Amino acid sequence: MQKIAQFFKVSRNKYPLDEHYENIKTPKRATVGSAGYDFYAPYDIELAPHQTETVPTGIRAKIEDGWVLMLFPRSGLGFKYRLTFNNTVGIIDSDYYYSDNEGHIYIKLTNGEKPLIIKKGEAFAQGVFVPYGITVDDNADATRNGGFGSTNKAE
User: Which of 30, 58, 60, 112 has the fewest CB within 10 Å, making it most exposed?
Assistant: First the structure.
């Protein structure tokens, strides 16, 4: 198995909820056959039906070029509660790590039809590393410095 990335906590001054900083757990795989790395709730998340919340995970990922981290809800939460991510699939590019916010991964999720409680320390999302290719005539040379929508502003 090729090792292409590493997870870190963001610096304390980059985490907006100081009282929960010590609860941040770096993502882990549950078994040797797991493709996904579990992301853990840094605090209790209570969602009423159709409620949305943005969760600052406190995590950043240093990823080698040619790879992307794709984020999804945990399968059981999607199946039982219809939990979804507002951007459907989170895409964490390798250059996001070097942004001013240290590549802090935020996850915006929306609950389905019934109340959901995710306890501090429980896995609620999973990340899978996937290789990607580029076109033969690619000439991208801009750099990123931000999160959502920042590639549209790159210069």
Answer: 30
